[in-house]
Specification:
The complex is a heterodimer of chains A (222) and B (144). Chain A is mainly α and 222 residues long. Chain A has 11 helices and 3 strands; from the N terminus they run H-E-E-E-H-H-H-H-H-H-H-H-H-H. In chain A, helix 2 packs across helix 5 and helix 6 runs antiparallel to helix 8. Chain B has a 7-stranded antiparallel β-sheet with strand order 1-6-5-4-3-7-2. The chains are: A mainly alpha (222), B alpha+beta (144). The interface between A and B is medium-sized, with 32 and 37 residues.
């Protein structure tokens, strides 16, 4: 299934709503959290991530919530059981072992699951108003400028919220890239599924920027 | 010594002493700078330059990059005549930064998209960077 189709499936099947209700897992959904109800075709299966995950977009987001929400969305998007995806099953089990052993934090585990991060981001589409883009971009720049790791930059909550805006963010990101530069390539790829940068130009930031701006003009995003 | 936003990102920097040696630049990062490249951003993430096939976001993955450049593990952080050294920082299992030793025993680092600085290893420890977990060396000292 293509990324575009997968994203459509996610959007079509995952319900997003502000809520203060109790979830199926018994978790409390406070103000500022978004409840995501994920209907599975095998709901009777006793798996901890089967339903009722919470999104917490704050920097203090619980890592279990984040990764389980992502797991739910990927699984629902593919509409298959975990058992039919050995790689995904392995990843989740590895995360479980690590989390139980307290080996690393959210940063590590979200980075270990780039697909989950991308799909999770697609899943929160339309939760972020356009007016907040500038504020989010500013926060992201000021809080990640000193970081060398692209993954660390990309999993910053502000960057994730921008990805969560989906295609609405493309003109904003491209204008930002044009005016202020910055490592927006992860977000652009996550939203569009496209990669206009030739392999030989990987890491050449000027050429990466030019390639994305050119694609933006061709696609009418800029 | 000039004040810098780096001091708010790396809280030990001011106390340990450092010197800014370049302007901010988003074209290269610490890994590239340690490897002597100012043209590309080296990162194992998709879409960025990474000189080895396995794009491992781990200390071992970073070590494999510097092994490919002729570096070997070493014990001492001190200057050894005829050898160039690099230090890999990690926060838990997560590699966060690489610094390169200068002939005078200080270290040079590119701080994300910010400036290059000359510093000691402790100055960039703490916070997001974690601490130095690996030091590697190779023979020869290319012009820098």
């Amino acid at each position: 299934m293509s990324e575009a189709n997968m994203a459509t499936s996610v959007h079509g099947n995952v319900r997003h709503q502000r809520s203060s209700e109790q979830t199926d897992d018994g978790a409390r959904s406070d103000r500022g959290l978004t409840q995501v109800s994920v209907p599975f075709h095998d709901e009777a299966r006793p798996q901890p991530w089967r339903t009722g995950c919470l999104y917490d977009q704050s920097p203090q987001a619980d890592e279990r919530s984040c990764v389980y929400a992502a797991a739910c969305e990927v699984r629902r998007a593919l509409y298959m059981s975990v058992e039919e995806h050995p790689r995904w099953q392995t990843d989740i089990r590895e995360w479980e072992r690590g989390a139980q052993a307290g080996l690393a934090g959210k940063t590590y585990y979200l980075a270990r699951f780039p697909t989950a991060v991308a799909v999770r981001s697609q899943g929160v589409i339309n939760l972020v108003p356009d007016s907040t883009f500038a504020e989010l971009a500013s926060t992201w720049r000021s809080e990640t400028g000193h970081l060398s790791s692209i993954t660390q930059k990309a999993i910053h909550p502000a960057y994730q919220r921008i990805i969560g805006m989906g295609e609405r963010a493309l003109p904003l990101i491209l204008r930002e890239l044009q005016a202020r530069r910055g490592h927006w390539f992860w977000a652009l790829h996550a939203i569009t599924g496209e990669d206009p940068v030739p392999p030989e130009d990987a890491g050449d930031v000027d050429k990466m920027r030019d390639a994305w701006l050119e694609l933006g003009r061709i696609r009418g995003w800029l | 010594m000039p004040e810098s936003s780096l001091e708010s990102d790396f809280l030990r920097l001011r106390e340990s002493g450092y010197q800014i040696t370049s302007d901010p630049d988003d074209r290269y990062n610490c890994v590239a700078w340690a490897a002597g490249d100012q043209r590309k951003w080296w990162d194992p993430s998709y879409g960025y330059y990474w000189p080895v096939a396995a794009r491992l976001k781990s200390v071992e993955g970073f070590m494999s990059v510097f092994r490919s450049l002729g570096y070997e593990l070493c014990e001492s952080r001190d200057v050894e005549p005829g050898f160039e050294k690099i230090a890999i920082y990690a926060n838990g299992l997560w590699p966060t930064h690489v610094a390169r030793q200068l002939e005078n025993g200080n270290w040079t680092s590119k701080c994300g998209e910010e400036e290059d600085i000359e510093h000691n290893l402790q100055g960039l420890e703490g916070g997001d960077n974690g601490r130095v977990v690996v030091v590697m060396k190779r023979e020869g000292r290319p012009d820098s």
